[in-house]
């Protein structure tokens, strides 16, 4: 019998569609989420320590993501009863790094069959054939995958970076620019590469306005934090 091959979704492709039961009711994804950004993320298992620290962090930061026009959607290959019991334990019993009474209100998907985890390439047999790795999919308001991150099971995610990526993707879309290494709001941004030698020469000569060119193919300009923040979250 041939082994089934699951093709992982790629950046720039539509997010694979599915219907599922969650801790917040049934969903039809991505149709129910269109018009907003979505962070779809998987975790290996309920009632595990790394996952607990992550869910407490996501729960604490949920309003920050909502303010950025983004909804959170979690998944593991556990059932609803396990999800509900685990989230209740987090709220009632766990205090960690100043976080306590954390109420996780975003949906957590029931995926006991691993159908959705396999659809999104979250099952990596080299790590585990029965649990999802820590995948993160950034999906834009049109339902297109824009960024994918994978973390191993033993390493918790960097939530500052997850938020930075979301802000960065919105800035790219809002201003038609690219972003340099370690970019943060308020840092200079990269303007599109010159499309002709004349344009490149004009830029190098300072004829295209306030722009700093390091060479014909690499020019930057200032973009203030205030300008960036005015357009975040579809404002």
Description:
There is one protein chain. The strands form 4 sheets. A 5-stranded mixed beta sheet has the order 7-4-3-8-9, covered by helices on one side. Strand 5 and strand 6 form a beta hairpin. The chain is elongated, with a radius of gyration of 21 Å. It contains 6 helices and 12 strands. The chain has 2 domains: 141 residues, Glutaredoxin, CATH 3.40.30; 59 residues, Antioxidant, Horf6, Chain A, domain 2 (2-Layer Sandwich), CATH 3.30.1020. It is α+β, with helices and mostly antiparallel strands and 235 residues long.
Layout of helices and strands, plus pairs?
Elements: E1 18-22, E2 25-29, E3 37-42, H1 49-67, E4 70-76, H2 80-93, E5 95-96, E6 99-100, E7 108-110, H3 115-119, E8 134-139, E9 145-151, H4 159-175, E10 189-190, H5 197-204, E11 212-215, E12 218-221, H6 225-231
Parallel strand pairs: 3-4, 4-7
Antiparallel strand pairs: 1-2, 3-8, 5-6, 8-9, 10-12, 11-12
